[in-house]
Batch of 2 targets.
Target 1
Amino acid sequence: MTGISNDPAVDDVGQGRGAPHGNRMVVAVLALVGFFVALFLWAHNAGLTGPIQCGIGDCATVQSSEYAYIGPVPVSTIGVVGYAVLVALALLGLQPAHRDSRLVGTLLLAGSGGGVLFSAWLTYLEAFVIHAWCQYCVISAILITLIFFASLPEVGRVRGGAR
Amino acid sequence: MKKFYYIFAAVAVIGIGVVGFRVSSSMFGSAVSAPITLDFADDAELIALAQGITKGDDAAPVTLVEFGDYQCPGCGSFALSVKPQIEATLVASGQVKFVFYDFPLISIHPNAFLAARAARCAADEGKFWEYHEVLFRNQSRWATASMPASAFEDYSAEVGVNEGSFTACLNSDEYADVVTANMELGTRMGVSGTPTIFINANGQTRRLNNYDFQSLNDAVQTMLAPGDR
């Protein structure tokens, strides 16, 4: 331990107000994993990889279905962008200047909540419309759900945060 | 904080490694996606190598021959709207045998040659026509892909072709000679665009100018008329 101080505005490493929020670290790591899962699917949609080999399920059916795209945009592109934004927000929220930022907390909650809803819709399509499962999509659904739960402590910060 | 950054960096390195490996191993694959150099001593040698894929009774009195390109929108329209009518009526009644030859227009359709080879790989397991239709149905998806092989592999699974043997076939030079020979055959027959349809009956071959079902049906019935026999 370094920089021990009695001032509550200075943390145990002397980096400013409040300790780094552990939940944002969890969000950053999980979102980074999600980013690479989405990036892999995006590379597949862009024709940059070989066939997707699933241990379970039927990724080929899901990825070649009409639901793999929203208009001309592959769903995986939305995933890449979404997870990248969550990584950036979580890392930003770990910086001393933004540790208590209500804006970062609000955006993390909104982003992960929106991601859960979008992922739920995709899971519904796999289960009841396409009748096939892609394990990478399932992994992504689990990740975004975990990210949402890890973001829940932001509720307290948003309600009672200083900035 | 340090521990967090170590974990974060480890995840980043693993992610970049896994995705990078999959991309690089696909991009540096050995799938032949362009015509190869072939020397034909004479027409007989060319005809021996060129292979059309046939649908219908071999003994049918009339043969319709299409030279097509999987990346060509006109061929897609023909395959998805006209060909089913030909099959349901003229082929089903035994009047017509339909034959498809590849004629990828490689100067404007960079993925068409590989698509033609992919269809031939699917034909190894008797799924040519199913694959043919899936390629045209999904044309807008793979036509603009920089590396369309993964899409082709997905479609093989969709039509029930063994993915392992299909991938091995696609990532090789298999059928590159046949597709090249088909292109050469088309060129020698005067094909310059796609789809180009020929009708053959009674030893006579002529090129058709209209590809709607009614025009094709009229041409077939004319060929079948007693005066033309």
Note: The two ends of chain A are 27 Å apart (CA to CA).
Target 2
Amino acid sequence: MSNSNKYDTAFIETFQVDAQQLSGLQYQDIKEWDSIGHMQLMSVLEEAFSVELDIDDIIDFSSYEKGKEILSKYGVSMANE
Amino acid sequence: MAYNASSDVRGGRTAARERLSGANAVAGFDVASLLDVAPYSLDHVTKSALFAEAMNALTRHHFSHCPQYRSMLEFLGISLDTHHVLADLPPLPVRLFKEFELLSCPRKDVIKTLTSSGTSGQQVSRIYLDRTNAGLQTRVLARIVASITGGARLPMLIVDSPAVVRDRQLFSARGAGILGFAMLGTDVTYALDEQMRLDHAAIAAFCESHADGPVLLFGFTAIVWQHLYKVLRDKGEKLPLRDASLLHGGGWKKLASQAVDPVTFDGRLRETCGVARAINYYGMVEQTGSIFLACSEGHLHCSNFSDIIVRRSDFSIADIGESGTLQLMSLLPTSYPGHNLLSEDEATLLGEDDCRCGRKGRYFHVAGRISQAEIRGCSDTYRAA
């Protein structure tokens, strides 16, 4: 599975959303993405990409797009796949 | 773990002034730059200048954004046209958060509401957080906890039941505490089940993965004692952890009635749960984030983000060593007017900048609730079955 696919799957399975909802999705936009959902998502992503996120990155992870930017700092690239 | 007192103070007074001149979109001062400084590094001169500036700015911010707060200040005849000496800025009695809906942000921006855990028949406080304030709370909490963990996220065993955080819209003080700390952990595991019984399978899996490495245990003092220590003791079991730090708070009252003092608590937790360091903290839901950690001397410490004043019953400022009512100031609250509060706790200021542990700032002792104050608190109001 490509990194983009893994990333999308983490959102879709954690929040029970459709792929079409992902673009532009922000923290607290949907009731599933609250502080508990956020920690679930972080833990799914950490496992999927074998990374450990810093606390500041967890706090800054404010949207679907921002998360890609943050993961790229950990060597998880989703461009040109 | 040693605390490095010589850490970066960033040039002291001058840097503090520069920081203060930096505009903060929210309240007119720049709290963000303090996040890059060691959390117990500001001495009296630097910190009192910073707090006088910041508390005046926060008071103006809440005056402009919270109508009830504005009414109270107007009633007290406080003019915000002039700069006030820190001690002259009026603290809000914490009970007002029970009686009024106090917000300094648009209602639609509230993403999280924290409540105090009052016992039945008592009203609860409601603390409204917007995104900015909630994020700042977590960042500051992370900085303060990093002073003992070194900054890495550690595997975390929460000595409580996941049922406490079930209501995802409204968090009790207990739930808010758990969620706030859980952000700092990895492999977050709950040690108790829905009925507050030990979850043996979960604990065994946690210990198997992390027995040798550093781990963080978190829980409320009375719950850790009642539902972890005593249960293990009665069964003659021990946790096979070798390098655990325990962060615990919520008050000693329940344990004092069982004649358990901090020394006994630390000793038993060490023997039974492999807790190498038990660190008590004091904090209130009205000022989540800027908590006070006890040092190796057993003293609670203000970080750069908080300060205290102890008041006599005539509201004059108590001397060092004299007990009185605890006033708490925090740089964090922007979405609700909780930056300057008069608590219902009795405390004693022990000193400033000169604790043997090396931390700068004021350090103090909390004796408990002032008599006649309503019973409130985190685990002290938790009723064990």
Note: The longest helix of chain B spans residues 44-65.
